Amino acid sequence: SFGVEATISNCSNNYGPRQHVEKFIPRQVTEVIDGRRPRLYGDGLNVRDWIHVDDHNSAVWAIIDRGRMGETYLIGADGEVDNRRVVEAVLRQMGRGSDEFDHVTDRPGHDRRYAIDWTRLRDELDWQPQYRDFEAGLAATIDWYRDNEAWWRPQKAAAEARYAATERVL
Hints:
Layout: E1 8-11, E2 13-15, H1 24-33, E3 39-41, E4 47-52, H2 53-66, E5 72-75, E6 80-82, H3 83-93, E7 102-104, H4 119-125, H5 134-147, H6 149-164
Parallel strand pairs: 1-5, 2-4, 3-7
Antiparallel strand pairs: 4-6
């Protein structure tokens, strides 16, 4: 409409270092660091295509460098994992039993599945994610949160206070 040359990208769920503690994976990791039980919404079978933030960044650069103006590119990693399996993996990697979590009331309108078809990015721009092993990427993420408590600690109490107003253990 206004002559702006642009491309659009839409991405699946990111994980990795420096993500705010209100987001799903950092919240679970920091809860375990603090000696608390992670909380899982509903039955935990909500599926997300998890992509490491470094892969998201690299895909955006591929779109900038090789993408066609005016096109939309979806960024994914074929990393579909349900939230329960994510929590169990966090607990296992942090030396806790994979069942040491609490179910809490589900969020209103919580989508059951987010899926991305990133075929165009792969085929047209010859892009591939580097973090294909979710468990390895998760382990590096856990290490980052363990090593950088000074970065996330100031945000944690306020984030948990917001959740406390809506969550109820089942």
